[in-house]
Write a structure and sequence with these properties.
Layout (H helix, E strand, L loop, with lengths): L1 E3 L13 H6 L9 E2 L13 E3 L9 E3 L2 E3 L2 E2 L14 E4 L4 E3 L2 E3 L2 E2 L5 E4 L4 E3 L2 E3 L2 E2 L10 E4 L4 E3 L2 E3 L9 E4 L5
Parallel strand pairs: 1-4, 2-5, 3-7, 4-8, 5-9, 6-10, 7-11, 8-12, 9-13, 10-14, 11-15, 12-16, 13-17, 15-18
Length: 174
């Protein structure tokens, strides 16, 4: 699947104003904001989940704001407190021209990659954090046995115990 956002009414892909969308992603006329569809009983929610080979390398997310994910409220299942904006398990999507903002989780506030090789191009990671009962590492991205390709991305205001922007565990980002 290839999913494109960030359009004004009537715009075509070639006419998209990505710079306008990326400059002020939460209030732009061009914003395509992905929000959670449902919450679990503890109030946790993840916005994009690529579990068990769900997102292949021909899956594209382009031109979206992924904001407000929260996987920090579950005291009894630490393994589930990962990647509130995007969780990739054996998944390797292309993520381009996207903003990850104000997401929080125990590990990988915005994105958690496990055995995955996603590509992030021209993305912004802003004000993401590890938070909750067991806050740990990777305010924006946590990589475990993964090799993401990260190109022309901005990181600002991300917080964690270790690796405010990026934390790697047996990983080799490019």
């Amino acid at each position: 699947a290839k999913i494109y956002g960030g359009f004004s009414l009537g715009e075509r892909k070639a006419e998209r104003d990505i710079k306008a969308m990326m400059t002020n992603p939460l209030s732009s006329d061009h914003a395509a904001i992905l929000l959670p569809a449902s919450y679990d009983e503890e109030g946790n929610f993840r916005i994009i989940e690529g579990d068990a080979n769900a997102l292949s390398s021909d899956t594209v997310f382009d031109g979206f704001t992924v904001a407000g994910g929260d996987m920090s409220n579950q005291a009894d299942d630490f393994d589930n407190l990962r990647g509130s904006g995007m969780y990739n398990n054996n998944s390797s999507p292309l993520v381009a021209n996207c903003t990850f903002a104000n997401n929080k989780a125990g590990k990988g506030g915005a994105v958690y990659n496990l055995n995955s090789s996603p590509t992030f191009s021209n993305c912004s990671f802003t004000n993401n954090q590890t938070k909750g009962v067991f806050p740990e590492d990777g305010g924006a991205l946590f990589n475990s046995m993964s090799s993401p390709d990260i190109t022309d991305c901005d990181f600002s205001g991300n917080m964690a115990v270790n690796g405010g922007a990026l934390y790697n565990e047996s990983s080799a980002p490019k």
